[in-house]
Design goal:
Elements: H1 4-7, H2 26-30, H3 32-35, E1 39-43, H4 50-57, E2 62-65, H5 69-75, H6 80-86, E3 93-97, H7 105-115, E4 120-125, H8 128-135, E5 143-147, H9 153-159, H10 168-175, H11 189-199, H12 204-207, H13 212-229, H14 236-247, H15 256-263, H16 267-279, E6 283-288, E7 302-305, H17 308-314, H18 327-345, E8 351-356, E9 362-368, E10 375-379, H19 388-393, E11 398-402
Parallel strand pairs: 1-4, 1-5, 2-3, 3-4, 6-8, 10-11
Antiparallel strand pairs: 6-7, 8-9, 9-10
Helix pairs in contact: 11-17, 13-17, 15-16
């Protein structure tokens, strides 16, 4: 048995990013227990700030880092009486950080939720695959899931002291009305965008903006830490090769059979690894918008990275996005990921898709919700045109071109 003193240490000191700035998700997390006692589950990739956020919002919580082996062993007992010995009588809130590392995270959480009704339980993890597979039955009806991603552009501006305005992307999502117009700014939008499109939006980089070694280490080892510890992949090198290949194909249609031939892997393994990357919050898939017209592509997805800095690290290219051939693809990834993050944070309920026909007509991003008119967005680094083909097919659609000059 590990003593209460040894477990209840401030493991937050391990976090290298300690500035206490607000995040878009703060209010949702802060108000969670005022509405219900259900387990608060916070999921997101390593290094996106889950621990820092929870420490700031719940400063008096009793914190257990399950990446620490003695701590993990104490929770592997799955015994309420053992748990009682290590829980503080003072703190009402318990945080189990990186709970996916337990052999049965759902069982541990269920014991605490059921047997300690005076406690509020928060669990975090960076592998949704392991948590969902092993907690689905145990925590059914007992938890609410939240996600934390790398910073949004608005969060970046707030944390770097830049001028903040109403964010055009957030305005479009919250109102359902296209809101992309240039505005007079007191900061250099192009310089801020260049920095973000180069090194991304991981919180650590706010204070270390030129530390590309951090991203290289993140891409080579940190993001694989949980995947390897949980034995989710058989071959780390092949998995890294696949992830690197995907990094070269952002914004393009993905062919599982083509990836299979290139890497010499069977298609089922390719699909499995991509699912693991997605559930580890490294990438996400965007699927086609289709109303079942014969010429509309309806199956093959596109793949984007949650952070373009991590993507650039995978291909080891940190040159200026305004001077490289894939600059447009990087900007498209950035804009799509901003919509993805804010649609989740703001709970606006849009489906995010792309549109393409067999004749080659396409729209980079389509926002749709129920019977409302779809919003079709072309995403171009400098300038471009809306899709006449989409307008003809969907005459009630709202169309706009999002560029580096008007996205904010």
């Amino acid at each position: 048995m590990v003593s209460n003193h040894n477990i209840y240490i401030d493991m937050y000191k391990l976090c290298t990013y300690n500035r206490h700035y607000m995040r878009q998700i703060d209010k949702l997390v802060q108000n969670h227990f005022s509405k219900q006692r259900l387990v608060l589950e916070l999921l997101g990739a390593r290094q996106v700030g889950k621990t820092t956020l929870l420490k700031r919002i719940f400063p008096n919580a009793q914190y257990f880092l399950l990446d620490n082996e003695p701590v993990r062993k104490s929770f592997e007992t799955f015994d309420q009486f053992s748990y009682k010995q290590i829980f503080s009588n003072v703190s009402k809130t318990i945080i189990l950080d990186e709970i996916h590392l337990l052999s049965n995270p759902g069982r541990a959480a269920k014991i605490i939720f059921d047997q300690f009704p005076d406690k509020n339980l928060i669990i975090t993890g960076s592998s949704a695959l392991n948590i969902k597979n092993k907690t689905a039955e145990s925590l059914a009806g007992r938890k609410i899931e939240y996600h934390l991603y790398p910073l949004t552009f608005a969060e970046y501006l707030e944390q770097t002291g830049g001028q903040t305005h109403r964010y055009n992307i957030a305005e479009t999502l919250t109102t359902g009305v296209i809101s992309f117009s240039s505005k007079t700014l007191l900061f250099d939008l192009r310089a801020s965008l260049e920095r973000i499109l180069t090194t991304g939006l991981y919180p650590y980089l706010i204070e270390h903006p030129q530390d590309t070694d951090y991203l290289l280490n993140l891409s080579d080892s940190v993001i694989f830490k949980d995947i390897l510890e949980l034995n989710l992949i058989e071959n780390r090198r092949v998995a890294l090769d696949l992830l690197t290949l995907l990094a070269h194909q952002i914004g393009n249609l993905i062919s599982y059979s083509e990836l299979s031939r290139t890497l010499g892997m069977d298609s089922r393994t390719i699909r499995k690894y991509i699912e693991i990357f997605e559930q580890s919050y490294i990438i996400f898939r965007l699927y086609p918008f289709s109303k079942n017209a014969r010429d509309e592509i309806g199956k093959s997805p596109k793949i984007y990275f949650h952070d373009v800095g991590l993507r650039n690290a995978l291909i080891n290219d940190f040159s200026s996005p305004f001077l490289r051939r894939d600059g447009g693809a990087i900007f498209e990834n950035f804009i799509v990921s901003e919509f993805y993050k804010l649609n989740d944070y703001l709970k606006t309920g849009f489906d995010l898709n792309f549109w393409r026909t067999s004749q080659g007509s396409e729209v980079d991003l389509v926002l749709s919700k129920g019977s409302s008119s779809p919003i079709a967005l072309e995403i171009k680094l400098s300038k471009g045109n809306t899709s006449r083909a989409f307008a003809n097919r969907y005459p009630n659609a709202k169309l706009e071109v999002v560029t580096s000059q008007n996205f904010y």
